[in-house]
Amino acid sequence: MRYEGQNVPEKEVWGPQGFTVAPDGAFWIVDSVGNRLLHYDATGHLLDRLDLDPHHVVGAADVAVTDSHILVLAISIPMVYRLSTEGESVARYTVPPHLEGEISGITVGDHGEVILELGEGRSLFLLVDADGKASQTGYYVPNKPTYASIEARGANRGHVVIGDQRVEIITTHALTGLRVLGITPAGSFYVRVSERTSTSPTQVSVTLRHYSTAGQLLGVAHVPVAEQHAYVPNGLALGPEGDVYALITLPDRVEIQRIVFRPAKEAP
Q1: In angstroms, rounded to a whole number, what is the distance separating the alpha carbons of residues 268 and 264?
Q2: CA 83 centroid distance within chain
Q3: Is it true that the peptide bond before 201 is cis, omega within 30 degrees of 0?
Q4: What CATH code is carried by the domain that includes residue 76?
Q5: How far apart are the first and last CA of the chain?
Q6: 61 phi and psi, to 5 degrees?
Q7: Of 86, 147, 170, 265, which alpha carbon lies 20 to 30 A from 218's?
Q8: How many CB atoms lie within 10 A of CB 138?
Q9: Which residues contact 105 (CB under 8 A, 6 or more apart)?
Q10: What does the DSSP 8-state code read for residue 234?
Q11: For residue 111, is pLDDT > 90?
Q12: pLDDT above 90 (res 22)
């Protein structure tokens, strides 16, 4: 699916900051230029434009959607806004000052809790109340009374812990980021892996790795970061059926594409 961009000055590079897939399969895109959310159904039909100005959102950077609420992360004035699916204000949460500099995205807990992602998902903090109290947490694993946590270590090594499974991750180049993108209803999970392939100029390669519930590598996919017209910080999302989607920016439009994985035995 795609949507056409707005008219912007020639040579100005712009782009959305992120997007998500709702439980009903619809897409929500953070249109940072227009300070609004764009709501599309699963076939790419525009359903609504939700203006964020009335909610005093400044610098929208990410969005998460549940069956009943929309959560919007703003980073210019760090806050999280909870809206109804009709666009009415429900609540807002202060981001703790000591977390502001590292915040990179937002996710939602199993019961609608607000969870902040720091450092591309290397750590997560649950917002306990609206005044900014937070506690460190992990990713919820469906149907298991446990959490997943991430720790990057060493020049090209790291690991991901999902339930009782510990998965070692080794990269060819310097490891710069690990993030659990999501866990499917069947229990398999996706990990976003960032590597710094060059320092002059800095170049980063991003891949997605798909693991079984037992921690076996099932498939690998390249994420076209270098080919993007504008960088999208939160440009990957997991759909309710277990498919992964990427938000791709082009000079005159944005496309949402389903990621195709190579079987692990065919991956380089």
Answers
A1: 8
A2: 19
A3: yes
A4: 2.120.10.30
A5: 29
A6: -125, -25
A7: 147
A8: 17
A9: 18, 61, 62, 73, 116, 117, 120, 121, 233, 234
A10: B
A11: no
A12: yes
Residue 111 neighbours by CB distance under 10 Å: 7
Tens digits of per-residue pLDDT, 158-167? 888 887 788 8
Residue where the block lists tokens 């950077």: 61
Residue 211 lies in domain: 2-266
Look at the block and give the residue holding tokens 């760090």. Answer: 78
Residue 236 has, within 13 A of its CA and on its CB side, a CA count of 24
Strands of the sheet containing 18-21, edge to edge, are 18-21, 27-31, 36-40, 46-51
**Three-state SS at 101:** helix
Q: How many CB atoms lie within 10 A of CB 29?
A: 21
What does the buried/exposed string (b/e) look like for 53-69 if buried means 16 or more CB atoms within 10 Å of the residue's CB? Answer: eebebeebbbbbbeeeb
| Radius of gyration, alpha carbons of the chain | 18
Domain count, the chain: 1
The separation between CA 199 and the C-alpha centre of its own chain, rounded to angstroms, equals 25
Percent of the chain with pLDDT over 70: 87
98/116 Cα distance (integer angstroms): 12
Report the alpha-carbon distance of residue 46 to residue 14 in Å, rounded: 21
